[in-house]
Design brief:
The structure is a single chain. The chain is globular. By secondary structure, it is mostly helical. The strands form 2 sheets. A two-stranded antiparallel sheet has the order 1-2. A two-stranded antiparallel sheet has the order 3-4. It has one domain. Keywords: Membrane, Transmembrane, Transmembrane helix. This is Lycopene cyclase domain-containing protein.
């Protein structure tokens, strides 16, 4: 029933993809809860369990997806790990509860992207495309203004402007807003469980909160780069097969 109502009929494994996308909040809360400071202090360090279930969830999502989404997810794992090195280790914008970047993180980024991708390609989202293109910008403008004016999150105000400039170039595709919602959720859960913590001042001078809403721009920029990489690989593949 969900498949008939929400997804385009010709999409393979649509029901499974939709189920996995809807289970994304449950998976996130469970996986990050096991890796939390609370869990480690009260029971044991559950990071290896989180690593395992994240990879398993990724593989299930991966094999339930069509060939294009599989390419996006596969490349996202490596692209996000590179992003972690840049933003976490080099720029020190945030830190994980342990020194190393957790193994589950790059797989988690791919799951975030895939979940937003699936939601953005449901029949409902496609039918409501025009309305959502009005609703989403208003929602995020209000959110950015709220954290900036009332929480002194200057970082999110700056990166919020960058976020909207990027989306303007992408013709306000709802895909990036759906992914942004997934990003906001996982950032709230991860920082709540203290799996990672953002610095109170980015680059030592820009005040922010934990987590900053401006993080969505970092993800959005990575998403745009991801699509470009896949398009480049597809173009090279066509050239080689000609």
């Amino acid at each position: 029933m969900i498949n008939r109502i929400l997804f385009l009929p010709e999409k393979p494994n649509a029901g499974m993809q939709l189920l996995l996308a809807f289970l994304f909040p449950v998976f996130t809360f469970t996986a990050l809860g096991i890796d939390s400071v609370f869990f480690a202090g009260r029971y044991f360090d559950g990071r290896q369990i989180t690593n395992f279930i994240s990879i398993v969830y990724f593989l299930i999502f991966f094999f339930a997806s069509d060939s294009y989404l599989r390419k996006l997810m596969f490349i996202m794992v490596f692209l996000s790990y590179l992003g972690e090195i840049i933003f976490c280790k080099c720029l020190e914008m945030y830190h994980y509860r342990n020194e190393a970047i957790p193994l589950y993180v790059p797989f988690g980024h791919a799951i975030v992207y895939a979940s937003g991708y699936v939601f953005a390609h449901t029949k409902w989202a496609i039918r409501q495309e025009r309305k959502l293109k009005v609703f989403f910008p208003i929602l995020f403008i209000l959110l950015f203004l709220f954290v900036g004016l009332f929480l002194n999150d200057i970082f999110s105000l700056i990166f919020g402007i960058c976020f909207f400039l990027l989306l303007k170039r992408k013709r306000w595709e709802n895909l990036y807003f759906f992914i942004a919602l997934c990003v906001v959720f996982i950032e709230l859960v991860g920082t709540f469980f203290q799996c990672w913590t953002w610095e109170p001042e980015i680059f030592g001078i820009i005040p922010t909160v934990n987590p900053p809403l401006g993080a969505v721009f970092v993800y959005a920029g990575g998403d745009v780069l991801l699509v470009k990489i896949v398009e480049l690989l597809e173009r090279q593949k066509r050239i080689l097969t000609c």
